[in-house]
Amino acid sequence: MNGVILNMPLDMHLHLRDGEMLLDIAQQSGKTFSGAVVMPNLVPPVSSKEEVLAYRDRINEAMGSEEFEPYMTLFFKPTYDKAFLADVKDQIIALKLYPAGITTNSEGGVNSFDLEELRPTLQAMSDLDIPLCVHGETDGFVMDREAEFMSIYEMLATAFPDLKIIMEHITTKAAVDMLDRFKNLYATITVHHLVITLDDVAGGMMQPHLFCKPIAKRPEDREALLKVALEAHPKVMFGSDSAPHPQHKKEACGCAAGVFTAPIALQVLCDIFDQHDKLDNLQAFVSDNAQSIYKICPTFKEVTLVKKDFIVPEKYAEVVPMYAGQTIPWTVESIF
Ligand SMILES: [Zn+2]
Questions:
Q1: Among 190, 278, 290, 312, which is least packed by CB within 10 angstroms?
Q2: pLDDT of 186-234, one tens digit each?
């Protein structure tokens, strides 16, 4: 067969939004993925056990008949104490830390990385074995934000050696280099950052549907990401960071950040791994690594993809996907 079978694909970083958008796009992930780590940056952010449970219910409802496990996250606040975290632990997979104001709906994030301020919550998470997912960017110059954040990762990884820290959606060689330096640092990588650089976003005509945070970087950064993804480095997981916005918020003055890849992620990953003759490593990148890092057993799903042209729809509801209207060389053939 000129194809590949993926067992229990997982998206370890996903924005499902809420309300009408959730209803419109949820099944685009639910069809092909066994589960996803769902980001908590709603308005207001998901920051209590009640909000986690209610959001999970809304997601399950939006999924309809799709077999899909939403792995819930809680919006990190340095005010959470151990009793609160112990109570919510069984309902979540991780906490997600945003520096304040760094991306969509992150205004309530962390204002300072003063270790003593963060210590009680992070130590409690470490004790309770709750992973910390981090949007790792400073408020510096846009191309340097992630690299500048490495000293914060280093500080956190050193101060809390038993805390699992996931560097979310890494985009730089600097972040890739951190993986082998600290045993408790892991990473997710999106599909679009394996494909594009800043040139694709702004090198010619402005491409709003490729504009995201963290912004795509230089060719050498993409090469570094490709290397660890293609070899399925055991500390690296696929996380799409698929982040839908309605078309009018992307094709606008003040374009919202986010690339919508949920419906095409697996097809494009097949193409990338196929082009590099590494299809054998794709299973680890899209599921096995995440299962061992997070110690999860996803519900069964078998997705068969074949090398056959697929024309990407212009829109899914009000959302324009990456590669809208273009032909990509891989297609989802069947799902069991
Ligand atoms: Zn994200």
A1: 278
A2: 999 999 999 999 999 999 999 999 999 999 999 999 999 999 999 999 9
The strand pairing partners of 39, in sequence order, are: none
Token pair in block for residue 277:
């003759």
Strand 185-189: give its sheet, edge to edge: 10-14, 35-38, 69-75, 94-97, 132-134, 165-167, 185-189, 236-238
CB neighbours (10 Å) of residue 298?
21
4's enclosing H/E stretch is: strand 3-7
- Taking the centre of ligand 1 as the mean of its atom positions, its distance from the CA of residue 180, in whole angstroms, is 23
pLDDT of residue 1: 59
Residues bordering ligand 1, an ion, CB closer than 5 Å: 241
172 and 198 Cβ atoms separated by less than 8 Å: no
* Residue ranges in the chain whose pLDDT is less than 70: 1
Query: Are the C-beta atoms of residues 264 and 244 closer than 8 Å to each other?
Result: no
Percent of the chain with pLDDT over 90: 95
Rounded distance from Cα 308 to ligand 1 centre (Å): 30
What is the distance in A from the centroid of ligand 1 to the CA of 241?
5
What Rg, from alpha-carbon coordinates, does the chain have? 19
Question: What are the pLDDT digits (tens) for 12-31?
Answer: 999 999 999 999 999 999 99
Q: Which two tokens stand for residue 128?
A: 């309770």
